[in-house]
Write a structure and sequence with these properties.
The complex is a heterodimer of chains A (116) and B (115). By secondary structure, chain A is mainly β. Helices cover 0% and strands 53% of the residues of chain A. Chain A contains no helices and 12 strands. The relative contact order of chain A is 0.33. In chain B, 39% of the residues are buried. Chain B has strands at residues 5-7, 10-13, 19-24, 31-37, 44-50, 53-56, 65-68, 75-79, 88-95, 105-106, 110-114. By secondary structure, chain B is mainly beta. The chains are: A mainly beta (116), B mainly beta (115). The A-B interface holds A 4, 9, 32, 34, 36, 41-46, 49, 51-52, 90, 92, 94, 96-109 and B 4, 6, 30-31, 33, 40-45, 48, 50, 55-56, 91, 93, 95, 97-109, 111.
């Protein structure tokens, strides 16, 4: 079974500083990888995804992630944090399933705090 | 496009009572998922539908949980009876018929409290 490990359940950065949220995956096949963001009392919103092709993936709100097969990692970064980035971030890996659709396995999440 | 719609947003019930959650997926999305998200955790899959067929319900506690997706559109998730261990956010998601790379689109969830 595929799995995801997110290192650091809480990350705190200053406004304007680099954001780095770590994600390592375990997969027996080439994975599809996703980052989602969840604001309080809301559902999950897709930030970006990696399927095939370019290993550096750009998403919404200035976030990007790099797929590194040799390190089995898919870390999320943003050059300059904004107060509005404070939220919980989830990394997910897709299990191959028949008949279409996805079976996403999520990590336990990283709560990002942005301080003035 | 309209997003995934879930209702109610919040539900408070007493232990042993039944409860139901409703989901309307994005139009054209034939795959529908129910996830449960416990406090401080990532979502965990309960059941996945392809049209009206439940193709993966291996994680659904079938002694008290049930789901249906009549006509392959809206879906209902039921708990009967609710227990003190059931409080969580129940998330519905849908995805288009485009294979394994398709992202899931989530609703805002239903937060269940059991007293």
């Amino acid at each position: 079974a595929q799995s995801v490990t997110q290192l650091g359940s809480h990350v705190s950065v200053s406004e304007g500083a680099l954001v780095l949220l770590r994600c390592n995956y375990s997969s027996s096949v080439p994975p599809y990888l996703f980052w989602y963001v969840q604001y309080p009392n809301q559902g999950l919103q897709l930030l970006l995804k990696y399927t095939t092709g370019a290993t550096l993936v750009k998403g919404i709100n200035g976030f990007e992630a790099e797929f590194k097969k040799s390190e089995t990692s898919f870390h999320l970064t943003k050059p300059s944090a904004h107060m509005s980035d404070a939220a919980e971030y989830f990394c997910a890996v897709s299990d191959a399933v028949t008949g279409g659709g996805n079976k996403l396995t999520f990590g336990t999440g990283t709560q990002l705090k942005v301080e003035l | 496009e309209a997003g995934v719609v879930q209702s109610p947003r919040y539900k408070i019930i007493e232990k042993k009572q039944p409860v139901a959650f409703w989901c309307n997926p994005i139009s054209g999305h034939n795959t529908l998922y129910w996830y449960r998200q416990n406090l401080g955790q990532g979502p965990e899959l309960l059941i996945r539908y392809e049209n009206e067929e439940a193709v993966d319900d291996s994680q659904l506690p079938k002694d008290r949980f049930s789901a249906e997706r009549l006509k392959g559109v809206d879906s209902t998730l039921k708990i009967q009876p609710a227990e003190l261990g059931d409080p969580a956010v129940y998330l519905c998601a849908s995805s288009p018929p485009q294979g394994n790379g398709s992202p899931l689109h989530f609703g805002n969830g239903t937060r269940l409290t059991v007293t």
